[in-house]
Amino acid sequence: MYVYVYARAHTHTMKKNESRFTPLHYAAGSAASGQLDTIRVLMRMGANPRLLDSYGRSAADYARVLRRDDAHTLLLEMCSPC
């Protein structure tokens, strides 16, 4: 339930920090179990996978760099064409 409430409130906003990470960035880079479900929920709630952080990286970029292959594949599938 927490993910739903958090996602509902923050899918379109940037975190208020210098990196400008979105909840989708955090989920994509997470090694925590349930990350794929979190990504699915965020995307269904309208999270924008095209938002870039302050380094010009998308959530899919972080998943790729951190070798979260399942998350990377899911993000590419869900935001096709990205």
Give the structure's gist in a few sentences.
Helices cover 52% and strands 0% of the residues. By secondary structure, it is mostly helical.
Radius of gyration: 11 Å
Distance between the termini: 29 Å
Report the principal-axis shape: globular
- CATH topology: the name is Serine Threonine Protein Phosphatase 5, Tetratricopeptide repeat
Order of helices and strands: HHHHH
Structural domain count: 1
Question: Overall pLDDT, averaged?
Answer: 80
Count up the helices.
5
CATH superfamily: Ankyrin repeat-containing domain
Assigned CATH class? Mainly Alpha
Mind describing the biggest β-sheet?
A: none
What is the strand tally? Answer: 0
Structural class: mainly alpha
Bin the strand percentage.
under 5%
Q: What percent of the residues sit in helical stretches (DSSP H or I)?
A: 40-55%
CATH architecture: Alpha Horseshoe
| Stretches with pLDDT under 50, minimum 5 residues | none
Question: Would you write up a description of this structure?
Answer:
This protein is mostly helical. It has a single domain (2-78), classed as Serine Threonine Protein Phosphatase 5, Tetratricopeptide repeat (Alpha Horseshoe). 52% of the residues lie in helices and 0% in strands. α2 packs parallel to α4 (59-65). The mean pLDDT is 80.
